[in-house]
TrEMBL record:
Residues 139-189 form the Anaphase-promoting complex subunit 4-like WD40 domain. The keyword Repeat applies. This is THOC3 protein. GO terms for cellular component: THO complex part of transcription export complex.
Length: 221
């Protein structure tokens, strides 16, 4: 964690870290590493509040919007749900037939979405914990998801050379953003219909093996 003046004020030695998220109330940071250990850090004291070792491959992690449940996607295609702050198992949902990679909650608190190695995006009702629809326009494992600020659109991306933008309530395709390479991450603007995304671009003009490191924007009317 970095302070306002650009200096590092918190370093957590917990193996090779691969995912991180803030709690909705801003009080806690969760960090997951390659050994499938998730560490919960108090953002004020900079100390570990809890540490959980899981017996399955942990992928993306996230709190729900109400800050009372903690979600993990795993390598068995499941969504594991823990109570928070007790971290007691509540439910394990068989969400996909293969590796469940990513998870995102919509800003309205109505849905969450998961992306899987089966190339499907599934949309779930937060209260009922049931799948309400699937999006199946991608052909490669879904790496990244993002809901628009109003919860009406869902962007999903993979190694396909396009980003799918769907209408959440119907599942219909609204736009297809063309890319020249796989997309690693997508993120909607917090207040506008503006999508930022980063791809596995190469600087082919000078060195085809050199990563370009560009961030691109796609604006909607």
């Amino acid at each position: 964690v970095w302070s306002g003046n650009g200096t590092c004020c918190l370093s957590v030695p917990s193996g090779e870290n691969i995912n991180i998220c803030w709690s909705p109330d801003g009080q806690t940071i969760a960090v997951g590493n390659k050994d499938d250990v998730v560490t919960f850090i108090d953002a004020k004291t900079h100390r570990s509040k809890a540490e959980e070792q899981f017996k399955f491959e942990v992928n993306e992690i996230s709190w729900n919007n109400d800050n009372n449940m903690f979600f993990l996607t795993n390598g068995n295609g499941c969504i594991n749900i823990l109570s928070y702050p007790e971290l007691k198992p509540i439910q394990s949902i068989n969400a996909h037939p293969s590796n469940c990679i990513c998870i995102k909650f919509d800003p309205m608190g109505k849905y969450f979405a998961t992306g899987s190695a089966d190339a499907l995006v599934s949309l779930w009702d937060v209260d009922e914990l049931v799948c309400v629809r699937c999006f199946s326009r991608l052909d490669w494992p879904v790496r990244t998801l993002s809901f628009s600020h109003d919860g009406k659109m869902l962007a999903s991306a993979s190694e396909d050379h396009f980003i799918d933008i769907a209408e959440v309530e119907t599942g219909e395709k609204l736009w297809e953003v063309q890319c020249e390479s796989p997309t690693f991450t997508v993120a909607w603007h917090p207040k506008r219909p503006l999508l930022a995304f980063a791809c596995d671009d190469k600087d082919g003009k000078y060195d085809s093996s050199r990563e370009a490191g560009t961030v691109k924007l796609f604006g909607l009317p």
